[in-house]
Amino acid sequence: MSEEDTYSIQATAWRHVATVGGTLVVLSLVSMSWMSGTSIPLVGMIVGGAIYVAGREGHFVMERKSR
User: Fold this and answer.
1) Which of 4, 14, 34, 39 is 20 to 30 Å from 58 by CA-CA measure?
2) Which whole-number Å values give the CA distances from 57 to 11, 20, 54, in the listed order?
3) CA distance 3 to 66
4) Which CA distances in Å does 58 have to 7, 28, 38, 39, 44?
């Protein structure tokens, strides 16, 4: 397996991390209506947003390295 293939696989993994973070944000937004009295949706959005940003940055770094 070449170095470019390894970076490409890592980029795909980071893209999946970003997808998980985005999903957490969406689920937090959906749950706001029935969990409005708790801070769980807010924490979910913050954590999900951080995971999403980290996943996107990791994906872009690995994409640049694979070229």
Assistant:
1) 39
2) 10, 14, 5
3) 7
4) 11, 23, 32, 29, 21
Token pair 């959005």: residue:
45
Distance CA 66, CA 6 (A): 8
pLDDT tens sequence across 2-35: 888 898 999 999 999 999 999 999 999 999 888 8
Residues 6+ positions from 43 with CB-CB distance below 8 Å? 28
In angstroms, how far is CA 27 from the centroid of its own chain?
13
pTM of the full predicted structure?
Answer: 0.85
